[in-house]
Amino acid sequence: PDGAPAAPPAAVTHAGVTTAENVEIREKVTPPLQQWLRLGNEGSLSEKLNEQFVGLLLKEGHISSDAALSAFLVTSGELVVEACLKTSGPPPQGSPHLTSQNAKGGGGGKDGKDGGGGGGPGGGPLNYQVIDAYTRLLSAIVRYGFVDPTLSAATKRLQMLTRVLGAAVRLTAAEHEAYRNGFAAGFDQRPYFRIFHNLLVDLNAPDPVLDARSLLVLNAFASALHQLRPAAAPGFAFAWLELVSNRHFMPAVLNHGEREKAWNLFHVLMVDLFSMLDGYLGASPAAGNGGELSDALRTLYKGTMRTLLVLLHDYPAFLIDYHLSFCDAIPAQCIQMRNLILSAFPRSMRLPDPLTPNLKVDRLPEIAQAPRVMSNFRAALAAAQGGALQASLDQYLLGRGGPPDFVPSLPALLRRPSAPGEYDVPLVNSLVVYVGAHAIGLLQERKGQAQTQPHVHLYLGLVTALDAAGRYHVLNAIANQLRYPNSHTHYFSCVMLQLFGSAPNDAVKEQITRVLLERLIVHRPHPWGLLITFIELIKNRRYAFWTHAFTRCAPEIERVFESVARGCMSQAQGQDGQGGGGNGGGGGNGGGGGGLNSGLG
């Protein structure tokens, strides 16, 4: 067709077939596709006609086998996307990675035209009539295209939906890969977004057999989105985020009755998103040096934050359950994003006012309750050194000694084998939480009388033996547990304060202060446990916080400390519930009072 990119040198198209085969398939697919489009333009389509047309496709062999079905769906998809793109300007020029296009306008208007956003080729709107007709055909094939008499109607439709989504994934991935490899002048994500969006909408229409709320249906869409995750198809990232957060998908997953299975589907997609951000921010010159982010990355970051705000407001329990794996994946630079996740608290909870006179945090009833943790925080530790690291750690924590040089050897063991200069952050996080959970278990098992000195000694040994980079990761792992009132928040708050009080030098104390402070100087929300720890640190004379030189090393630094201290106090006196009051909590996200260190045994 006119305007198609030149074939790659090996005479193999990006669809994976030879040029001659591709031409032959197109010639075979074009007549029935044109017939379908003509019927749609005439307004003749009905459910009965849809069934008859799909029966004709089966009879003529277009969709009678898996290979034929795949070729028909992908090739017809290529044709309608090409036709759609011809309604706009030339393809965009630019990087094969994150593009500056934003698909949020890709939903389009009621007349089948682009809603005006989306930034496509030439910035012009697209006419989606052929795309809409194509997706109506896909829906008809899902309903009527599987004829195995041994299967139920629901099973047949589910299997066909899986095949249709697989073809849409291959179509999108192939076109994106052609762009990345230089075989196409550009990649406009909007037509591909429209295909997936229409399928979501069609499957949410009333249907007596295929239930869009079925976990199997949701799993099919989640699997398709995972295959097109931003790390695999960065040019599709904006459309991908729009689909993940779509009102026909996200609420259906997070409101599903089989909560654990359904939530894990969405958890995987959120980790996909955070991992992609980590890859770009980690490699960006802007990372950590105050440089400017690209417009595309900035837009994606804002979209991610909006999605997280919706989750914080409507589904705080989801963020609570998976905070550990989210913190593993979130870039170190995204402090406000991490704060937002760690600020989630149960809907039934009202956060205690930490400035209540003589408040004893350790006597709050919530402190005895362990948080629900769905992330497998033991996985990285169990995999390290084939399990040898966890075995030695268990011996040490049980007071049986373990290797005599166990703690001094940890800094080397926490580095990545493939990159010895870098720390394995998920492993550091896993070790910190594992040790804390072990200590909390002993305290609860023995009614608070357990001796947990090996655990505290290990933390102190780590922050003493590690260099500044490694120590920062350990302290961040501890700070990631400072959330709403629960046994983990209380224990790790005590650990952080004891490390400050027992640190052998001001360098460690300064770094503890940095970890807390950098989470407090960003915009709200701030986790309740973070505030309670910092307020205790600056108020309790035991820590002599204001006497340390690093609080007075420069006038501007001193002003920052004073400003944050005042801000913490004002937040403690009254702060809205999470997500703008959507989680019911009153009270402050602050802290203070006495008795914090009593949680260490």
UniProtKB/TrEMBL annotation:
InterPro entries: CCR4-Not_Not1_C, Not1. Residues 85-122, 572-601 are annotated as: Disordered. One of its GO terms (biological process) is nuclear-transcribed mRNA catabolic process, deadenylation-dependent decay. One of its GO terms (molecular function) is molecular adaptor activity. One of its GO terms (cellular component) is CCR4-NOT core complex. Residues 201-565 form the CCR4-Not complex component Not1 C-terminal domain. It comes from the Eukaryota. Pfam families: Not1 (PF04054). Residues 104-122, 576-601 have a biased composition (Gly residues). This is CCR4-Not complex component Not1 C-terminal domain-containing protein. It comes from Phaeomonas parva.
